[in-house]
Amino acid sequence: MERTIHGWTGNTRVADKTVYVLNGPNLNLLGTREPHIYGHDTLDDIAARLVARGAQLGLGIDLRQSNHEGHLVDWLHEAHFEGAHAVLLNAGAYTHTSIALHDAIKAISVPVIEVHLSDPETREPFRHISYVGMAAIQCVKGLGPDSYVVALEAAAKL
Ligand code: DQA
């Protein structure tokens, strides 16, 4: 696994297919952020798990995090133009607000799987709407860091 400017990559030199794993605001603070909701694993831990599982599934991993909505839109476009196999998207709070992310997912042909550590539908009412979910092909949520691994396994079957 290699550190990049925005996150981590792994297996990309050996695997034919790459899965983009895009993470939105505040997910850089995983590990210390509300651990009773999100657990103690850091994004670094999650990246390591995905790279290891990706190696078994023949998938490269390009995991990134940004607190800025436009970066996520740009990376969805990039995944499309680079011919990514799939995108796993945990858009954090932008899930519940961003028509720009909804439109970006609709605009690209790469399949996008929505991911959440928690289950937003069992939390505050403002988390019950998901603009990402209205455009994504599938959602994996509520499993803590395992949500990412289960989503990667679903991506492998696409
Ligand atoms: C989250 C759920 C969102 O409601 C919240 O804003 C997050 C994290 C999750 O992974 O459970 O930032 O996407």
Fold and architecture overview:
This protein is an alpha/beta fold and 158 residues long. It is 33% helix and 22% strand. Strands 1-2-4-3-5-6-7 form a seven-stranded mixed beta sheet, with helices on both faces. The model has no long low-confidence stretch (mean pLDDT 97). The protein binds 1,3,4-trihydroxy-5-OXO-cyclohexanecarboxylic acid. The site of 1,3,4-trihydroxy-5-OXO-cyclohexanecarboxylic acid has 10 residues, from loops.
Key features?
alpha/beta; binds 1,3,4-trihydroxy-5-OXO-cyclohexanecarboxylic acid; 5 helices; single chain; 158 residues; 7-stranded mixed sheet; 7 strands
What secondary-structure arrangement, pairings included, does this model have?
Blueprint: E1 2-3, E2 7-10, E3 17-23, H1 35-38, H2 43-57, E4 59-65, H3 69-81, E5 86-90, H4 99-107, E6 112-116, E7 138-141, H5 146-156
Parallel strand pairs: 3-4, 3-5, 5-6, 6-7
Antiparallel strand pairs: 1-2, 2-4
Helix pairs in contact: 2-5, 3-4
Bound molecules: 1,3,4-trihydroxy-5-OXO-cyclohexanecarboxylic acid.
1,3,4-trihydroxy-5-OXO-cyclohexanecarboxylic acid is lined by residues 26, 90, 92-93, 95, 116-118, 120, 127.
